[in-house]
């Protein structure tokens, strides 16, 4: 497989919900039973270390999943809880795990949008934000948290959400990348919750790092992480080229672009695809390549600038 191949998505993930699996020494995972077009087979929570452990992404508001996580660490001490971002399939269960273990919660901060909401915008139902979440310890890019036999470095990866963090384990060349990079599908970037400009910058940041085995919030682990990130960058640039190709034929709206670009898409993902196109258009408008009347919004019409 060369660097010029298309993104090699891997949808082979036989892990069953509620079962703890050691995927590498010092890294276990437990799948939540919340499958959907957005979450694939469900949210994956990770247990880092042995004896005194950290839990990454306790998952949605799901009592059975919390019980499975706590059962997986029976006889051990949970010393830290980490949260990659504040979507409702990743952070709400944090309260249950904290109550059961007393462990402090580490994350970038409460949920926030990537930019202010325009007056003409309605709430985006796909965002699924957890607005009740607040960490005990706010982490910034480069902050390091050490536990018993492990050391995690916060890597700022805004784009999918403004407060998204990955957690790198540099000595092991592992990176817990949340929803920023997924092996089964591209990530949703839906303004104003997300930002394509930030997302692409964060991909560049990951590609420049040394970690080469990624553990994602959904789906299987991703080997050769940096090369996979380069695939994703090319994939997004190809999507941008498709948008520009359609706009070269004349002014149009986002639903028309989605029909032209996303051939054979699952109908349940059409709205999300529209927001992904909007994220690209925001970037193109900011760069002066594309023009629109007023703010770049989901209901707007777009044309080539100049």
User: Number of helix segments?
Assistant: 6
Low-confidence stretches: none
Overall SS class = alpha+beta
Strand coverage percent: 15-25%
User: What is the straight-line distance between the termini?
Assistant: 40 Å
CATH H-level superfamily of the largest domain: Ribonuclease Z/Hydroxyacylglutathione hydrolase-like
What Rg is obtained from the alpha carbons, in whole angstroms? Answer: 19 Å
Looking at CATH, which topology of the largest domain would you report? Metallo-beta-lactamase, Chain A
- What's the structural domain tally? 2
Biased composition (Basic and acidic residues): 116-134
Organism: Bradyrhizobium nitroreducens
Pfam families: Lactamase_B, WHD_BLACT
Protein name: Beta-lactamase
Describe the protein's architecture and organization:
Helix content is 25%, strand content 21%. By secondary structure, the protein is of the alpha+beta class. The chain has 2 domains: 19-233, Ribonuclease Z/Hydroxyacylglutathione hydrolase-like (Metallo-beta-lactamase, Chain A, 4-Layer Sandwich); 238-304, Arc Repressor Mutant, subunit A (Orthogonal Bundle), CATH 1.10.10.10. The strands form 3 sheets. A 7-stranded mixed β-sheet has the order 1-2-3-4-5-6-7, with helices on one face. It is elongated.
């Amino acid at each position: 497989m060369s660097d010029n191949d298309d993104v090699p998505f891997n949808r082979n993930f036989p892990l069953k919900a509620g079962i703890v699996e050691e995927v590498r020494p010092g890294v276990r995972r437990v799948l939540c039973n919340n499958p959907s077009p957005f979450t694939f087979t469900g949210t994956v929570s990770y247990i880092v270390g042995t004896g005194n452990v950290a839990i990454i992404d306790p998952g949605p508001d799901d009592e059975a999943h919390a019980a499975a996580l706590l059962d997986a660490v029976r006889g051990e001490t949970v010393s830290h809880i980490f949260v990659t971002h504040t979507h409702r399939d990743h952070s709400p269960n944090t309260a249950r795990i904290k109550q059961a273990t007393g462990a402090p919660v580490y994350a970038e901060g409460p949920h926030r949008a990537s930019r202010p909401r325009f007056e003409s915008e309605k709430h985006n139902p796909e965002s699924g934000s957890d607005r009740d979440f607040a960490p005990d310890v706010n982490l910034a890019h480069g902050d390091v948290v050490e536990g018993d036999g492990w050391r995690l470095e916060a890597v700022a990866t805004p784009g999918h959400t403004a407060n998204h963090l990955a957690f790198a384990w540099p000595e092991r060349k592992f990176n817990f990348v949340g929803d920023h990079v997924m092996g089964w599908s591209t990530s949703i970037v839906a303004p104003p919750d997300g930002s394509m400009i930030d997302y692409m910058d964060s991909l560049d940041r990951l590609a420049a790092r040394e970690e080469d085995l990624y553990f994602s919030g959904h789906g299987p682990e991703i080997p050769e992480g940096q090369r996979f990130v380069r695939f994703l960058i090319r994939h997004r640039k190809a999507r941008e080229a498709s948008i520009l190709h359609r706009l070269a034929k004349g002014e149009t709206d986002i639903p028309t672009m989605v029909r032209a670009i996303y051939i054979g898409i699952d109908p349940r993902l059409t709205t999300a695809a529209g927001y992904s196109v909007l994220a690209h258009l925001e970037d193109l408008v900011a760069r002066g390549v594309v023009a629109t009347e007023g703010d770049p919004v989901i209901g707007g019409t777009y044309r080539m600038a100049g």
